């Protein structure tokens, strides 16, 4: 198998654009001969396209749907094309009559569950495994619809292209899951009007060709001091050798089920929907997990890994205290020593969680530097780890930091989205129209987004902390200000002042009070796959009280930001028939003492 997959861009109609795509790194350009396609080109246009593609160093591909062998050979002779892509029973059945000099790309269909459908055309037996490729696409080729890549499995002898719903956002993950010899994209690099976009083509190629582990487009990476490279390399190696193994995953999910309380329910909030006069609202109830928030998923996963690596001590940072409580809980479960770094200001705001951590056996270390919040707690935890990694694992609480932490945390939290996807279909018979989640570092959001990223019909909406104003220091809305930089080992969007210094942040919710956003969220925003907005402290408080009174559920202030978005926009952005899932990332018991100053 080749290390880097071949790249095929299908349906380009402009010769200059096709030439640029090849210069950027595309290997094949598909020329559509099917007259009913919006990407169709006539013979003269095909000749010009093929000439431009060859001149740039690429290979043009004639894409046929139910052409006879005679018609295919005639077209190839007139255009000089020597690669054919075969759709339809006639083209597949007659390809053996074509000259042996023509390379074949033989298309097989895959249903939405990832199962390869039987091919009745009879053309497979005439393929040459050294010359030809298969191409796996969804049942409606060219529609941009995806299928379940987790279930897709081809073990035959032919090299193959992966197609169906690929885009700059998901191609890297698709490659990791399926290990194809080539990838094929069409609608995934088009704008809403169906026009190929050079920027999307460039992003797609970059993510196939130059996207090393730990990168989400240009975001992510591992920007750390030399003293941290050894433990990070150990973690990178363990991701493949241990974490992704069937044995580890079976143990992990058994603990989630029998100790943490998974699966969590998907609850329809009917009274809230009626109050808003908006969509059907479903709450993914991470607040019902052991310890009261989604953080336990990641803490149990990382502490299980620490035991496998024979570590005896865990250090962690915490803002709202939920990750600290989850880490302390996991350490008690696995018999590990636990030290939690927490900003002194956050300790005041989240006093109940401080007491919970201590009760669970953790040593809570107050951080007095800087603004005494989450950013400063991360700084201290990283300093500790650089000097203690031989016996210590740093249990980072969100999908940020240096590689492999964003990938690792996202993997442990992906159970949220997988459950929600199954549950909403069971309850409604279809997939949701939108997913909404609050975003601090972004672990709860990426956990639920991950199952829906490949489905472009599902809107992904992240809600940041708008705080009490628009000036730096009054909020934690990173995407809104769109400044890029490095913080805590990762390249992403963050809040900086005019001198490039990390700016102070503010949020009523300690868990969102952080100046950077996880790199995968930065990538989802830049590629347009997700949108990010913000709501104020005041709006979050209103949502906090409303959910309690309408549904009898007290949400965390962090989760209240996602509810607040629906209060503001639900009626305008959605119809009454739309289905929206809100990730209720945690419960709000921890917030009640601190809310006295807001006259709750």
Provide the descriptors you would attach to this structure in a database record:
600 residues, alpha/beta, TIM Barrel, Rossmann fold, 3 domains, eight-stranded parallel barrel, six-stranded mixed sheet, 21 helices, 19% strand
Strand order of the largest sheet: 1-2-3-4-5-6-7-8
Quaternary state reads: single chain
CATH architecture of the largest domain: 3-Layer(aba) Sandwich
Q: Total domains, how many?
A: 3
User: How many beta strands in the DSSP annotation?
Assistant: 22
List low-confidence stretches: none
CATH class of the largest domain: Alpha Beta
The CATH topology of the largest domain is Rossmann fold
Per the principal axes of the C-alpha atoms, what is the gross shape? elongated
**Alpha-beta content class:** alpha/beta
Considering DSSP H and I runs of 4 or more, what fraction of the residues is helical? 25-40%
Terminal-residue CA separation: 62 Å
Tell me about the largest β-sheet: 8 strands, parallel, barrel
Cα-atom radius of gyration: 26 Å
- Give the DSSP E fraction (strand runs of 2 or more residues): 15-25%
Mean pLDDT: 93
Count of helix runs? 21
Fold and architecture overview:
By secondary structure, the protein is α/β, with parallel strands linked by helices. It folds into 3 domains: 6-211, Alpha-Beta Barrel (TIM Barrel), CATH 3.20.20; 226-257 and 293-408, Rossmann fold; 263-291 and 415-598, Rossmann fold (3-Layer(aba) Sandwich), CATH 3.40.50.1100. It is 38% helix and 19% strand. It has an 8-stranded parallel β-barrel with strand order 1-2-3-4-5-6-7-8, surrounded by 5 helices. Helix 11 links the parallel strand 13 (313-318) and strand 14. Helix 1 (15-24) runs parallel beside helix 2 (43-56). It is elongated and about 80 Å long. The model has no long low-confidence stretch (mean pLDDT 93). Belongs to the TrpF family. It comes from Coxiella burnetii (strain Dugway 5J108-111). Residues 8-206 form the N-(5'phosphoribosyl) anthranilate isomerase (PRAI) domain. The beta subunit is responsible for the synthesis of L-tryptophan from indole and L-serine. GO terms for molecular function: phosphoribosylanthranilate isomerase activity; tryptophan synthase activity.
